[in-house]
Amino acid sequence: MAINYALRISGSILIVVLLASALFAIVNSIRAAIAARGEEIEVMRLVGATRRFIRAPFLVEGFLLGLFSSVVTLSLIVPSYLFVIDRLTVTFPFVPLVRDSLQLSQVAALITALALLIGLVGSTIAVSQYLRERT
């Protein structure tokens, strides 16, 4: 029982660390995009563009980064998981392993939703910081 608890705690910590690093990567990527388009943003502000109008392209970029990252992640994880499950089923036939396609598709949907959320949150943080600094 203690091993199960330790695995859950360490797995949860690993997930939090990976989510934080993904958020950090998205924020820095959006910051780089903002820096590259700094003059365009200043021109938009001078002609009267609203904050929402300035923010929208970066939110779309964060959304697309999240979508792309989930596609890459799932294209690596799903075949690897199925390969490992096939090997473990042969080696340890007494251990129940998840092979249900419904559960796997639910996990894939959760990963995609989480990646999209991280992309949107990361871009919101980066754009908000930029607009606060420039105002």
Structural key phrases:
135 residues; mainly alpha
Structure, described:
By secondary structure, the chain is an all-alpha fold. It has one domain. The protein has four helices and no strands. The protein has helices at 2-36, 38-46, 51-91, 101-134. The mean pLDDT is 91.
Spell out the blueprint of helices and strands:
Layout: H1 2-36, H2 38-46, H3 51-91, H4 101-134
Helix pairs in contact: 1-3, 1-4, 3-4
Mean pLDDT: 91
The strand count comes to 0
Query: From the helix content, strand content and strand pairing, which structural class follows?
Result: mainly alpha
Largest sheet: none
Give the SSE order as H and E letters.
Answer: HHHH
Summarize the structure.
This protein has helices spanning 2-36, 38-46, 51-91, 101-134. The protein is mainly α.
